[in-house]
Amino acid sequence: MACVYDGGVVLGADGRVSVGNYISNRSSNKIAPLAERVFLLRSGSAPDAQIVSDHVSFYVHNLEAEQQLPMSVETVAKLVMQINYQNKDNLIGALIIAGYDEEKKGQVFGCPIGGTLSNEKWAVDGSGSTFIWGYCDAAYRDNFTRAEAEAFVEEGVALAMSSDCSSGGCIRLVTVNSEGAHHKYINGSQAPKFQDELNVPGPATGGMILG
Amino acid sequence: MIPAPQSHSKALGPGVTGPELLNPTSAVLERPPQPKPQQPLAGGHAFMVDPSAVPGAHGADPTRQHTKYPYVTGTSVMAIKYKDGVLIAADTLGAYGSTKRYKSTERMYQVNDKTVIGAGGEISDFQHIQTLLDELSTDDFRTDDGIQLTPQEIYSYLCRVMYNRRNKFDPLWNSLIVGGVQPDGKGFLGNVTMNGTHYTDSHVATGFASQLARPLFRERQRDDMSEEDAVTLIHDALKVCYYRDKQSINKFQIAKVTTAGTSISSAFSLDMRWDYEVFKEPTKFSIGAW
């Protein structure tokens, strides 16, 4: 999930990678850096998304070395789109590109399966996204402050984790602004909990009552 | 399993198994089936009749439903014996496909003073089983002689129910665990699957727990373990299942059956470990990886 705020973008993702019903990695990193201030959020088939991010970060490094200038977010997004679109028969990657450049400030691009490119104020994708379309529609405002945007993304990811079996574990937030990228890790026990879930007890207590 | 007899290939030489001839002829391909341990032959070939396809057949009921797929499901249940009796544990999630839909489902049910059953699988079928057992307990109560069904009797009853439903191609889509204390004071644990397969042991587990929790039980469970050790073992098993099973939540119940009494705890959560250093930046040295 990613959203634009007044001064940059905030990206958020959960940490669960699964094979069938088995969680193979409970703290994975779904946010891949493509450039210093542009990141890729990956969902869908894990190897497909990874190969796209590897290729695009390679091209971006080469181009930035040639140009001696940082690339714009739109250029990076278009590179991602080209790979997704030209190989649409073989790739299943639902990707979100988000980043900051001096000219247009924070931007979010959705690049779903098939290779469409769409500039949005906020974007969600992945299996958990189905549960939070309503929340995002209702809660998003233009010109969030940084704190409000981080709270919006954290709450959205936590809500998705609460309802989706394929989402869970830790929450990773990345805020990108003119100063660079700032990473935040929220461990699984500290993520917000909702109605009908229990807060995790501290480590000292046994945490149960036996009748 | 009984190994299938091999025919040694005359074409390939001694000590080698293979088809009777390297290129089988019609004499081999079209011969009638030979009797094997798996299928001793006598009389005609086996065949099957689908009762719903026979109009007016005895018992055919066009309004009958058959559980073909489970919809709202529970995941693992696990149980161990310890010094005073048995502990049975499960989480409280009723998942709807890959949605965590109902987070306060009761997956354990107290049948009488000495028995608790737990179930994974289709929750509606488990609720039906609760009704059946409730009828048995009520009959017990009406006889008014103070005698209740023992856990072993309930286990045998459930074996028959599950197997008979399986034979009608209309299974109750559950993996059941029966736990309790027998009249002689010894703990009892049994597992009945939706096929009717059943076994009893000092520790039983269904679903993911049978793969994740069972090694922990094999290592640490003893019939004479203290309650404190037993609770710690069950907690560790629940944590492993929560870490690695998609369809689980951090909200559990434990049932305790002893000679002194039976209770099912209220829901609680366990502290989980997320504070490993590597978790904060797992891809620090492998950028672009997962």
CATH level-1 class of chain A: Alpha Beta
Task: Tell me the helix content of chain B.
Answer: 25-40%
The greatest inter-chain interface is formed by: A-B, 51 and 44 residues
Q: What do we call the CATH topology of chain A?
A: Glutamine Phosphoribosylpyrophosphate, subunit 1, domain 1
Q: What structural class do you assign from the helix and strand content of chain B?
A: alpha+beta
Outline the low-pLDDT stretches of chain B: none
The CATH superfamily of chain A turns out to be Aminohydrolase, N-terminal nucleophile (Ntn) domain
- Note the run of SSEs of chain B as H and E: HEEEEEEEHHEEEEHHEEH
Annotation field: number of helices of chain A? 4
The major β-sheet of chain B equals:
8 strands, antiparallel
Description:
- The complex is a heterodimer of chains A (211) and B (290).
- The longest helix of chain A has 22 residues, at 46-67.
- The radius of gyration of chain A is 18 Å and the shape is globular.
- Chain A is built from four helices and twelve strands; from the N terminus they run E-E-E-E-E-E-H-H-E-E-E-E-H-H-E-E.
- Chain A has one domain (2-190): 4-Layer Sandwich (Glutamine Phosphoribosylpyrophosphate, subunit 1, domain 1).
- Chain A has helices spanning 46-67, 73-86, 133-139, 146-163, and strands at residues 2-5, 8-13, 17-19, 22-25, 31-35, 38-44, 93-101, 105-111, 118-120, 122-123, 171-177, 180-186.
- The model of chain A is unreliable at 204-211 (pLDDT under 50).
- Chain A has a five-stranded antiparallel beta sheet, with helices on one face. Chain A has a five-stranded antiparallel beta sheet with strand order 5-6-7-8-9, covered by helices on one side. A two-stranded antiparallel sheet of chain A has the order 3-4.
- In chain A, helix 1 crosses helix 2 (73-86).
- Chain B has 290 residues and is of the alpha+beta class.
- Chain B has a domain at 72-264: Aminohydrolase, N-terminal nucleophile (Ntn) domain (Glutamine Phosphoribosylpyrophosphate, subunit 1, domain 1, 4-Layer Sandwich).
- In chain B, 26% of the residues lie in helices and 23% in strands.
- In chain B, the strands form two sheets. In chain B, strands 1, 4, 5, 6, 7, 8, 9 and 10 form an eight-stranded antiparallel beta sheet that branches. Chain B has a five-stranded antiparallel beta sheet with strand order 11-2-3-12-13, covered by helices on one side.
- In chain B, strand 9 and strand 10 (198-200) form a beta hairpin.
- The mean pLDDT of chain B is 88.
- At the A-B interface, strand 4 and helix 1 of A face strand 5, helix 5, strand 12 and helix 6 of B.
- Chain B: Belongs to the peptidase T1B family.
- Chain B: InterPro entries: Ntn_hydrolases_N, Proteasome_beta4, Proteasome_bsu_CS, Proteasome_sua/b, Proteasome_suB-type.
- Chain B: This is Proteasome subunit beta.
- Chain B: It is found in: Cytoplasm; Nucleus.
- Chain B: Residues 1-44 are annotated as: Disordered.
